[in-house]
Amino acid sequence: MAVAAPARADERIAKPRLSDRLIVRPEIGALLGAVLVFVFFSVVTDQFLSPLGVSTWLDDSSTLGIMGVAVALLMIGGEFDLSAGVMTASTSLVTAMLATQAGWNVWLALLASLAFALAVGAFNGWLVMKTGLPSFIVTLGTFLALQGLNLGITRLVTGTVQVSGMRATDGYESAGALFASTLDIGGTQFQISIVWWIIVAAVAAWVLVRTKFGNWIFAVGGSLQSSRAVGVPVVRTKILLFMTTAFAGWIVGSINILRFASVQANQGIGLELQYIIAAVVGGCLLTGGFGSAVGAAIGALIFGMARQGIVFARWDSDWFMLFLGVMLLAAVLVNNTFRRRAERVRR
């Protein structure tokens, strides 16, 4: 009598293995890198794990993380924003000039700088979609224009390249409580910017993986023509992504001007590359359609831990640039490897 072979479970309904579920996560490489950096500097310097040390590298990571998350969303959507760094200075300058030179209440000045940021972001997105030019070129032009405006108008109004005096303005104390206060945890002061970083990362992660707009972001970054064919509002999605980056620039600019009470006209230049690197380290591909908001936040954390870890270890700060280069190359290689393995798992 023949014995029937045991029925084979349908692989389409089989529960995926833990390793397979981890591989398809874009941020897994950044998480492994963060663990390595954390362990390394915990061993080589005693200050790294002290309460003050932790607050220092979290603070260093926070503003970079806020921008890195927004830039990651834009990169997943297939675009770049080279004006992101200078936008943080532009919004700070708008707020500071209206408050100190025009006598506006700080809250009104903040609303005006927010409107300015969103207008610039919308213009960037509209111009990219209207002309078909690469966002690299369009936002490079915006970067240069904002840089010139920052320097020219600041020097014209104040006679210098700096705006200061925020602490004497109306509404500074209440606005500062929201953007530039500190939290006492176990006797150590932690900057409120860390809370902003967590909120921005959490909201971005939820939007990306739980909402229709998040699906649109992945779709327009993966294939523009296919997105149009299935009814995705491509133009609206791209414009909103550029506005999101500008909004993040406003948050960081507001944090900076209210925390330091002054701003330099040339502030923020060069930071746009760090935002992109944080996003790439966090799992974003330069080609779009793949990435993670949480990964970008972790990428910024790696930055903060490495930058302050080098200081705590009393090494020459020039080594940080070497670390950045190695980290970027390693991240690109790791991300490509995980993406290929994730594609095999999904098949």
Widest sheet, order of strands: 1-4
Distance between the termini: 39 Å
Please summarize the sheet with the most strands: 2 strands, antiparallel
Order of helices and strands: HHHHHHEHEEHHHHEHHH
Which spans of ≥5 residues are poorly predicted at pLDDT below 50? 9-14
Helical segment count: 14
Helix-strand makeup class: mainly alpha
Quote the average pLDDT: 89
Portion in strands: under 5%
Seen as an oligomer or otherwise, the chain set is: single chain
Q: How much helix is in the residues?
A: over 70%
Provide key terms for this protein.
347 residues, two-stranded antiparallel ribbon, two-stranded antiparallel sheet, mainly alpha, 4 strands
Write a brief caption for the model.
The chain is mainly alpha-helical and 347 residues long. It has helices at residues 18-23, 28-44, 51-76, 84-100, 106-131, 135-158, 172-179, 193-210, 212-222, 224-229, 234-260, 271-281, 293-312, 319-346; strands spanning 162-164, 182-185, 188-191, 262-264. It contains 14 helices and four strands.
